[in-house]
Design a protein that fits this description.
By secondary structure, the protein is mainly alpha-helical. 65% of the residues lie in helices and 0% in strands. It contains 16 helices and no strands. The protein is globular and about 65 Å long.
Length: 537
């Protein structure tokens, strides 16, 4: 029986989590339509824009371990506040200065800020809403079931808050962008500053796990964490060959998704006569469409063991043809529909991919192996985007880039589908059991969960539920979940609707985004956690 005071505490925590999570998504998604357009208006060429978004992926990937160690030392509440403050400064910089160098610095600062919060908000909410009896020795079946129902309700409500923030932020940013492309930047900065204050005031509660004291030192713990990742890398490379192939194939999916994700706003701004609200509607419809479709695919996978492979192969094939049509069809309305289909197809692939990868990793090593996979994904995708930027003449040119990306996306999808079998998890991969310090705490359950249900339409952020990734994202990073000159543009996010596009915003606390910490960054929960988006729908 839960006391009245505990019930009041859970209600306060739930309200705080929903408010901060929704505001987080709102701030990042303000930039999803305007970020790349703003960078272009400042004088950045095609190669420079691709290189900057690639840098966001790389910064988010290599920063995960050190910022994770800092988060362990400082605590979740302070870590989330730092994330919002850094993103507020990074986003606002593009409003107050027209310098290309200041813009680039702001984007990278916001990307760095996104890594401080990965999973921390969700971990706090999970810990504070679980009945106190769950941590005791005699947890009854009733208490456990009640706690499980409470988490289901928490994350279901969280998904609603995230989607509300996503749609409202995207449409608001598009409307503000019609007045001034830099205007969404300052609004996003103010929103992050407000979220920082709210997180400090609302993220209180029961004492959390004991944190290492300052005497333990940052440098020794950082060396230990890097050592664990290196060990995990060696064991992964020497271990399950199917897992290695999954990691590589998943990185290819992200790369070929990221190429059109960088260009789409420039391409469709010209097709729709500069009406940014149409771009905002594209982004919103694509994300919301994933929700019922993901629910249908999950029910299908519960009925048929081979459905996961069928979903991945079908979605990647349809997505590849849709992207070719989007690049070649001259009718704007048809091209828009095709691009939204491509974006949605990517979101449908990622839950099965994440589940297949998790099934091949021993639970004791999952966090470290997924960190290795996420780092590889970030470096591979970042390098691929740099090369693409050198090859693409103009940001608005799709004649070569999109058909090649479509071919790569289709082939990578077929490859992943052939590997994503449900039966027979591979040999345990990963390092000794000492886990790498993470900011997610219990929220890491979203990353460790294996099975199609673990990667729902949530943003990846905690990509986990989305993403999050992931997917943020997103559950998951608002992965996957990924926004614009902020943290969501092109990040690998989570496997949720917010992580399907690269953005300049970098990764959100649950995923990644685009011209900023969301532009194209991976989520902390693994390759799906991604980012929200820099500028992709």
């Amino acid at each position: 029986m839960i006391s009245r005071s505990s019930q009041d505490h859970v209600r306060r925590v739930r309200r705080g989590y929903l408010l901060v999570s929704g505001l987080d998504y709102f701030a990042d998604m303000l930039l999803t339509v305007t970020s790349v357009l703003l960078l272009q208006s400042l004088g950045m060429g095609s190669g420079a824009v691709f290189a900057l978004i690639a840098a966001v992926w790389i910064v988010e990937g290599v920063s995960e371990i050190p910022t994770g160690v800092l988060a362990d030392l400082l605590g979740r509440r302070v870590s989330v506040a730092i994330s919002f403050v850094l993103r507020a400064v990074g986003y606002s910089a593009l409003f107050f200065s027209g310098s290309v160098y200041v813009a680039a610095a702001g984007v990278l600062l916001a990307a760095l800020g996104g890594t401080f919060a990965s999973g921390a908000l969700e971990a706090w909410a999970v810990d504070e809403t679980r009945p106190e009896t769950e941590t005791g020795a005699g947890v009854g079946a009733g208490a456990g079931a009640e706690g499980a129902r409470g988490l289901d309700r928490l994350f279901a409500q969280g998904k609603i808050a995230e989607n509300a923030g996503l749609v409202l932020g995207t449409l608001t940013g598009a409307a503000l962008g019609t007045l001034d492309l830099a205007l969404p930047q300052i609004v996003a900065g103010v929103s992050c500053a407000l979220a920082a204050v709210l997180s400090l005031r609302l993220m209180t509660g029961r004492p959390g796990p004991e944190r290492p004291g300052p005497r333990d030192g940052f440098a020794p713990r950082l060396r230990e964490s890097f050592g664990e990742v290196m060990t995990g890398t060696r064991l992964t490379l020497r271990g399950d060959k199917v897992l290695i192939a999954l990691i590589v194939a998943t990185a290819l999916l992200w790369l070929f998704r990221g190429i059109p994700g960088v260009q789409w706003t420039v391409v469709y701004e010209g097709l729709v006569g500069g009406d940014l609200l149409v771009l905002g509607a594209m982004r919103s419809v694509g994300s919301l469409l994933e929700i019922p479709l993901l629910g249908w695919t999950m029910s299908l996978q519960r009925r048929r063991a081979a459905a996961r492979r069928s979903v991945i192969v079908t979605a990647s094939t349809v997505g590849a043809f849709a992207l070719v049509c989007a690049a070649t069809v001259r009718e704007p309305a048809v091209s828009i529909v095709c691009y939204v289909c491509f974006s949605t197809a990517f979101g449908l692939c990622m839950p099965g991919v994440r589940a297949a990868m998790n099934e091949r990793i021993d639970s004791g090593h999952r966090a470290t192996v997924l960190s290795v996979a996420s780092l590889f994904n970030s470096l591979f995708t970042g390098g691929g985007l740099i090369l693409t930027g050198l090859a693409v003449g103009e940001l608005g040119s799709t004649a070569v880039a999109w058909p090649l990306a479509a071919a790569g996306f289709g082939v990578a999808g077929l490859w992943v589908g052939s590997l994503a079998v449900r039966e027979g998890a591979g040999p345990a991969a990963g390092p000794p059991r000492s886990p790498t310090p993470t900011k997610a705490g219990p929220a890491a359950v979203g990353v460790t969960a294996a099975g199609p249900a673990t990667a729902g339409p949530a943003t990846a952020g905690p990509t986990a539920a989305g993403s999050p990734p992931a997917g943020s994202t997103a559950a998951g990073s608002k992965a996957a979940g990924s926004t614009a000159v902020g943290s969501g543009t092109v990040g690998p996010a989570t496997a949720g609707p917010t992580t399907t596009e690269p953005t300049t915003a970098g990764s959100t606390t649950t995923g990644s985004r685009a011209a900023g910490p969301g532009t194209a960054g991976p989520s902390t929960a693994g390759p799906t956690t991604g980012s929200q988006e820099v500028s992709a729908p």
